[in-house]
Amino acid sequence: MTVVDDGLRRIRVHRVSGRITDHDPRMVNTVHITHQCYDYDPDHSSLLGPGVGTATLRLRIGGRQFTSRWAGLDSAELDRVEQSWRTACPKAAMDCRRLPGRSAGYSY
Fold it and tell me: Is 37 within 8 Å of 51 (Cβ atoms)?
């Protein structure tokens, strides 16, 4: 999911089937970002740093939910992503969860 702004701002959703759809950002009801932090091991700091993890984005647009693939982000990058979605969809409810440690899957 990306925000396209070439005069007319819209959210472009690339689906697994290859289909691409555009949506009006004013129709976004909820932006939900889940960030799963990795365990930090100070003995192996070259592998992972504090705040490093993966994030998943879920948007609810007009009653339909769209879920992104995960992306590797640290805490600073997550803050920038969250702020950009707040800017793109100012009327949408924002929910950003930061989960410590490792998990076996998504948190819904």
Answer: yes
pLDDT, tens digit (0-9, with 9 covering 90-100), for 5-47: 888 889 999 998 999 999 999 999 999 988 887 755 556 555 5
Distance between CA atoms of residues 86 and 80, nearest Å: 10
Cβ 94 vs Cβ 28: under 8 Å: no
The predicted model scores a pTM of 0.72
Q: Please tell me the distance from the alpha carbon of residue 97 to that of residue 43, in angstroms, as a whole number.
A: 27
Indicate the DSSP class of residue 38.
P
From residue 2, alpha-carbon distances to 23, 26, 41, 73, 88 in Å are 10, 15, 33, 16, 10
Q: What amino acid is encoded at 10 in this protein?
A: R
